[in-house]
Amino acid sequence: MSERRVVVTGLGALCCLGEGMDLVWRRLLKGDIGYGLITKFDTEGYSSKVAGEVKDFDVGKYLGPKESKKTDTFIQYAIASAQMAMDDAGLTGESVNSERFGVNIGSGIGGINEICEQQVVLNEKGPKRVSPFFIPNAIANLASGHVSMRFNAKGPNSSVCTACATGTHAIGDAYEYIKRGIADVMIAGGAEASVMPLAVAGFCSMRALSCRNDEPQRASRPFDLGRDGFVISEGSACVILEEESQARKRGARIYCELLGYGMSGDAFHLSHPAPEGEGAARAMRSALERARLNPDRIQYINAHGTSTPLNDKYESIAIRNVFGPHIDSVVINSTKSMVGHLLGAAGALELAVVARSIADNRIHGTMNYDEPDPDCLLKDVAANESRDLKIQFAISNSFGFGGTNACLAAGRYSG
Amino acid sequence: MASESDAGKLAQNNGNQSAFDAERRARQQQYIGSLIEKLQKAREAEDFYSARDFCREWLEIDPKAERAQEILVMIETTLNREREDRVALNHCQDLFLQQRYNEVIDLLDRLESGSPLDLEIRALHDRANQKIRAAVAENAGINSLDEISRLLDHGHLDLARNRLSSLEMPEEGDLQILRRKLDRALEVRSTEKSLTLKLHNALDNADIDSARNWLGMICELNPRTEIFDVLKKSLPPELYENLTSRIALT
Questions:
Q1: Which of A241, A318, A391, B19 is the most exposed place for a label (fewest CB within 10 A)?
Q2: CB atoms within 10 A of CB B19
Q3: A239 and A276 assigned to the same domain
């Protein structure tokens, strides 16, 4: 029996650059910056005042008024991006064998907005006034739960919570389900609604966020010498993964093929990457091994590229260690330079970007790259402009607090 | 209630956990050691930006490391000082381009010593000083040229020559013109001396016609010659009258 293959047939995205992958992709190619000064709350006293906010989101397009009241923002974002991905794939709940159809949408933080609101209710009005929807809104797997109900997906239903690697792990795990024959179609991705006071304050305290408040649109500058932290963002991205023969049979448009998935743990520190980025390197090697690709077959890397001093330095070292001299002929970019860091949704959006890059033979630039950092020895980071690039194979990296690392390898679908 | 075997497993797990923790801490300490080494080298090389990065990494791994906190404060103080001095230095460079050298010196003198930009500050200070010295020398030169010109006009050629040779100025412009003027004056004086000698020889030989001829040539060469005063004092009035009556005095 031949090995099952997994292809990407639908993309959905919602972030500070807009709603819908086509719009987001166009704006990425244009070099638009989606983030800016925070408008959702008063940032007086916050060291970082910059974020990538989802603006003008009309939840009514996806949920009725009652449903929207019962769902936290991260769940609403997940439903929206899942719906967009299904539409893009040309699928409906009815067109898929429901028991072979699963969902794996993760979230780094989950319903933190709901947690904060209900804490206030508890403090001010007592335990009996806490909403019965509090727990279903707060727990991270309810994004997968709501999406499965919406599309009658009765196959695997799971959720990943691995900080900034969530989206990549969610897609990687979903890939495994199809690969192993547990499912034929998966909605996979990540959702996050963390542009809110407590989350921003927490990351500020960790000194993880950029404080370039006087030039907010230049705050996220991956691999640049002047980088000083990431820009927190929110939104969601989902992809539709399908078993290849089934997708081919129904005449689906195939963006790319998922070829490999690698994971590793640093077992080193809560927030500091392992020395020499060795954990990240193992994740990349593992993904390439699973994809049966030598590093010299890769043309493009969508880096985790957060714009924090440590991530970019150690990711660069890890990439160089994996790719050796070949790295000088690989183009590396960071989507976060334009959309900021969507935390649990970042990896999903970035895999969607990789899928579009492969399909369109075009990559976006790494914006705000003014002065190369000698600690980040990457020759070509697509500095500040998009360009044509014939891509046969690519990888997408994600690394999270707690020393969790994930990498996906994708390639042009060749039938 | 936990059985004996459960308690044993718990103890074993705890033991494993301690071993893992110890191993992880050892790796962290080893890494911190390498960071401290790099930090020291960076500080020795006065590469404070790298030093700050290493220090921050150390604190990322061990946020309570007091030594790292102390060093970071020192480094950031230095970097703040550097930033402030850089602003001042840039302003001084602008003033320098505007040729406001005295203001440059004043401002640079106000920067305390021990600045991380000491080398650059000293270099600009030296350049501004050089410019000021050159300007003083140039002014002094201009004054000297005027004086030499006056000496020449009054016929004090030797004095003028001495002054000219003591000037440390490039041989160009007004100085060149003045030197040509002096050379010409010296040449005239030398010719006049030789003609005067011939005039006196002719007078000694009572050869009045030749004497008159030499006197005419002297007048032509130097209309402001003082030979008439000399002759008037040394010759009898009739002879003086006879000698000079046909010389056109200007």
A1: B19
A2: 10
A3: no
Going by their DSSP bridges, the two strands A6-15 and A256-265 should be labelled as: antiparallel
Look at residue B75 and tell me if it is in a domain. Answer: no
CB atoms within 10 A of CB A36: 18
- Picking from A249, A272, A303, the residue at the C-terminal end of a domain is A249
Q: Are B28 and A271 an interchain contact pair (Cβ–Cβ within 8 Å)? A: no
User: What residues of B are in contact with residue A265 (Cβ under 8 Å)?
Assistant: none
Asked if the structure places residue B69 within a domain, the reply is no
**pLDDT of A226 strictly over 50:** yes
Q: Which one of B117, B135, B169 terminates a domain?
A: B169
Of B24, B34, B60, which has the smallest distance from its Cβ to A310's Cβ?
Answer: B60
Q: How far is B70 from chain A (nearest CA, A)?
A: 18
Residues of B in contact with A267 (CB under 8 A): 20, 24
* Residues of A carrying an active site annotation: 164, 304, 341
Across A193-275, the runs of DSSP E, i.e. the strands, are 232-233, 235-243, 256-265
Contact (CB<8Å) B34/A310:
no
Query: Residue A385 is part of which domain span?
Result: 261-411
Cβ atoms of A259 and A290 within 8 Å: the answer is yes
Task: Report yes or no on A213 lying in a domain.
Answer: yes
- In chain B the first and final C-alpha atoms are separated, in Å, by 142
- What radius of gyration, in Å, describes the C-alpha atoms of chain A? 20
Cβ atoms within 10 Å of A329's Cβ, excluding its own: 12
Q: A41 pLDDT exceeds 60?
A: yes
Residue A268 sits in the same domain as residue A242: no
Nearest CA in chain A to B20: A267
Q: Which residues pair with B177 in a beta bridge?
A: none
Instruction: Please name the residue of chain B whose CA is at the shortest distance from the CA of residue A276.
Output: B31
β-bridge mates for residue A104, sequence order: A158, A188
What is the residue-averaged pLDDT of chain A?
97
On whether both B200 and B162 belong to a single domain, the answer is: no
Q: Are residues A272 and A242 in the same domain?
A: no
SS3 A390: coil
Does residue A255 lie in a domain region?
no
Contacting residues for A103 by C-beta, under 8 A, at least 6 apart: A82, A144, A147, A148, A151, A153, A155, A156, A157, A158, A186, A187, A188
Contact across the interface for A269 and B57, Cβ inside 8 Å: no
**Do residues A170 and A316 both lie within one domain?**
no
A249, A282, A314 - which closes a domain: A249
| Candidates A267, A268, A272; nearest CB to B57 | A272
Verify that A276 and A236 share a domain, yes or no.
Answer: no
- Cα-flanking dihedrals φ and ψ of residue A118, to 5°? -75, -25
Q: Is the pLDDT of residue A292 over 90?
A: yes
Output the domain CATH number for residue A103. 3.40.47.10
Give me the number of domains chain B comprises: 3
Query: Tens digits of per-residue pLDDT, B102-127?
Result: 899 989 888 877 777 888 899 999 99
Q: Quick check: A267 contacting B, CB < 8 Å? A: yes
Tell me: do A228 and A162 sit in the same domain: yes
User: Domain range spanning residue B42?
Assistant: 11-64
Place of tokens 């495994």: A176
**Are A235 and A270 part of one and the same domain?**
no
B155 vs A107: which has the higher pLDDT: A107
Which pLDDT does position B250 carry in this prediction? 42
* pLDDT one-digit tens code per residue, A354-398: 999 999 999 999 999 999 999 998 999 999 999 999 999 999 999
pLDDT block averages, 10 residues each, chain B of length 250: 73 79 92 96 92 94 94 93 90 92 89 80 90 78 77 83 76 80 88 90 87 87 83 85 70
β-bridge pairing A50-52 and A232-233? parallel
Distance CA A32, CA A23 (A): 11
